[in-house]
Amino acid sequence: MKLIIAIIQPHRLEAVKEELYRAEVNLVTVNEVLGHGRQKGVTEFYRGAKETGNLLRKIRLEIAVNDNFLEPTVKAIIKGAKTGEIGDGKIFILDLKECVRIRTEERGSVAIG
Predict the structure, then answer these.
(1) Do 46 and 57 touch, CB atoms closer than 8 A?
(2) Cβ partners under 8 Å of residue 113, min gap 6
(3) Cβ neighbours of residue 29 under 8 Å, at least 6 residues apart?
(4) Tens digits of per-residue pLDDT, 7-36?
(5) What is the structure's pLDDT at 49?
(6) CA-CA to 64 of 20 to 30 Å: which in 50, 52, 55, 108?
(7) How many other C-beta atoms are found inside a 10 Å radius of the C-beta of residue 95?
(8) From start to end of 16-87, where are the E strands?
(9) For residue 89, is it left (φ>0), alpha (ψ between -120 and 50) or beta?
(10) At a CB cut-off of 8 Å and minimum separation 6, what does 91 contact?
(11) Which candidate, 107, 103, 106, 21, places its Cα nearest to that of 63?
(12) Average pLDDT for 52-74
């Protein structure tokens, strides 16, 4: 089991979600976050508004997957998020020790779904 954390541009969220659904990945947590990478201080546009400064709006996706869904999920995120411009984001892949479905108390890969 793996936990995928992806940081993407806000305007790419819909495209990433579409690609995830095509890859049959339906369980995702989405958060609006602030941060910067190497492009700190670069001006960006978010919903038509110019933003400057060192903290930029980003979207953080958290997706728990079984091992056989790892590569399709990563490829879907890349396909939906990639613009070729600075600030497209990052994907972090972590080992997931355990998962528990609260309702049924199932554990492990069965709990992920």
Answers:
(1) yes
(2) 27
(3) 61, 62, 63
(4) 999 999 999 999 999 999 999 999 999 888
(5) 66
(6) 55
(7) 7
(8) 29-35, 44-46, 49-51, 56-65
(9) left
(10) 4, 5, 6, 74, 77, 78
(11) 21
(12) 91
Cβ proximity of 75 and 106 under 8 Å:
no
Only one residue has tokens 């980003």, namely: 58
CA distance 85 to 99: 35
Q: Note the pTM of the prediction, 2 decimals.
A: 0.86
**Residue 7, amino acid:** I
Nearest to 88 by CA among 52, 17, 39: 39
CATH hierarchy code of domain 2-112: 3.30.70.120
Cα–Cα distance, 23 to 75 (Å, whole number) = 9
